[in-house]
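Support reply, case 0932

Customer input (verbatim):
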Amino acid sequence: MKKKILPNLSLALKPNTDGNAMLQALEGSPKASEVPAEVRSPAQVPNDLTSPREVAPFDPRRMGPDDLKVGVVYDLPLSMLVRSDNNARVFYKPGEVEEMAENLSTKGQKVAAIGYVRDNAVVIIDGQKRFNACTLGKMPTLKVYIQEQPESAIDEYETSRYINTERSTQTPFDDAIRWSKFLDEKLYASQDELAKRLKTNAPAVSKTLGLNRIPMPLRRMMADEPQTSTLAVAYEISNIFTGLNDSNAEELEAIGEEVIKAVIKKGLGRMQTIELVRSKMEGKKTRVRGDTVQVKFGEHRGDLKVVPSRGEFSLSFKGLKEDEIEELKRRVEAVLAGQLTM
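Our regenerated output:
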């Protein structure tokens, strides 16, 4: 049996023992007897984030990924690096990446990323924000600590998640996407197995997966704000989309956006959010709905929507070619200019 690879936390990652405190407070921690023996336990993490580390020489003209040694830090060209598909984080705020790029350009990289060699490249397990920042800032290289390749995609994900939760950068939205993926691929046999391996509980897993009901643009909006990034509040907002379908998608998205903005602006908690969602959903039947008519342009069908009470008039098509867009634009402008009759 292969030895399980634990994340190398000697690379200066600061501990945060309250990383899962919200989930534990919401649903209660799993009992010790419910956690299998193979689950990794929290490691001691050094507090010093600025300890200098020797960087081994790397000449891209004479060396490649196969020349890299496990346990060594190298300054590697970005062209050699790839992002892990199993990284625990999915959502990154543009502002934090820009700030990271500025810090790296002015102060240099003080903490190495973590990666492993696979298919003539180095896969970044931890440090994707630094990787993104280097790409944004047009920096040619990234310092990377090389570790053994994880035994499986699940081991790779759990290593990344362990590191992120220690730093409190993980959000329920990240978990929702990754957990759904791994369950669909049967890498976790069940939600119960996932809960035990990640030291959480079945109700928390179920609620987290429920966040995937929220349309992606709204999830990104929520992930950017601390108030809407907690599972307690985010789950209540997700209940807006329980009956989501093609006919009510636009209406529910509008309600969701109103609720999210109100929660952020007023700093609402879980119970207040529950009440706000209830009132919005009860009032949705009285909302003004527009009239939508299907129209045709060439071989394409589109929607003409009119909401008189709001003064809204919109025409939309999908799948048009560039020349078709130009022709439709010309015709609409001609009608509005009074050169043609409607």
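We compared this against your earlier run and they match. Two observations from our side: Residues 249-266 form the longest helix (18 residues). The domain at 21-167 is CATH 3.90.1530.10 (Conserved hypothetical protein from pyrococcus furiosus pfu- 392566-001, ParB domain). Please reopen the case if you see a mismatch on your end.
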